[in-house]
Amino acid sequence: MPAAKQLNAFLRRWDTGTRASRTKQLEEFVARCADMTGPQLEDELENGASLVLTRISAWLRLSYALGHSVALQLQAIAVFVAASSGQRYLAEFVEVGGVATVVEILSLPQLPEHDKHEAMRLLMAVANAGRHYKEIVCDGDGIEAIEAFMRASKSEALLEDARDLLVTIGRGNPRFSTEVHRALLRLLRIESAHAQRLACAGLRTLLKVLPTSQLYRKDEEGHPQPVLHEGYCEAAVGLLNSFNLQLLYEAGQLFSVLLATEQLEESLLRHLIHVLIDATDPKRAPPLHMQASAARALGQLVASLPTERRERACVELELVPWLCTLLSRETFSPECQKAAVQALQLLGLTGSADAEMKRLLGPQAFSIVMNAHDAVQAALSLNADMLRTLQPQMDAFIAVHRRHLKPEPLHLPEAMSTLLESAPAEDAHGEVSADEAAVTGGDTGAQPKLA
User: Fold this and answer.
1) What's the pTM value of the predicted model, to 2 decimals?
2) Average pLDDT in the 323-330 region?
């Protein structure tokens, strides 16, 4: 960086210099001015900071378009944008389309990871400047670019940078916060376990700060209530299909936050119980490890509820019978039995389901479940003789449940649906057709419609 009162010489060197000389100038500038405030930069550059920033921004647009590394340019721009009391530089950078340029850099596969790390760092500095600048990042397709980057990237460090940036632009940004939530929910369904885990942690962070991280409406008392839907619970429960222990841990942490959200408590428990319900149907049965994880989560979550809500959940969800189906399964699964025992132990310790557990398990099996120090040993101790009273009860329970299931909707072929919709009940003159008259016996009075 030139000394004071040598700005003209610095700009002349820049305008006439090669790529190598400009690189050296930027290295000196970053080393000298990295921690300066806005007024200090202005003093250092003899009131010509805007001229320097403009030249660096223009070189950035030229370099990334040609496929050259742009990490150094991004670092230099961040010196201006992130400087304390340097809002004028940030506004100037935004006015020349700098944010859109940096967002586009994230989507270029030919650029090295270091460039994208610096791009994330610069976008974070822009987003930290306030709601207006968060909206500018989003208006430049920032959310879509970050989501696409997390889908494609394999670098753990870059994925963490992207997750942190999504969380930052999702807070205090009501215009785009819902889009951020949707992006994180979509990321929960991708194949990359690491990206799933980071998205799960990011969504948990945003849910903890509701309603500042989500659109909301006011209730009758004027208090803000976030607008949420059961898609959160569906995506979270789907994580149980993974074998990744770190991801399963994050899913458990997300369950706790969803349970603490009044609008999602019932939906979460019902999605978890549906895993056990589907397990009784060979055509829809989820993997055994998912059944075990769902049973374990149900025991932990329901046991953590206040007494009144816990008792209501046990009754409405028929939780104890569905957990007992894992013990009486014909296809033996030690993991499912262990998870069922752990869940029943937690419910038994709360005192909310003792009577029903004794009725279903019998006194001997109930005693083994409640007094066991090791769930594996307890599951192995529940032999066929002890569960003889449980099996017929579970068969009857499942049979009753199947009788109350609603039939699946009839899906007609598209041609047939079109034909039915276009068939007129009356002709153009309002007279009943001959075929209809034959069916109704000529009575043109009001007829009951088929359901």
Assistant:
1) 0.83
2) 83
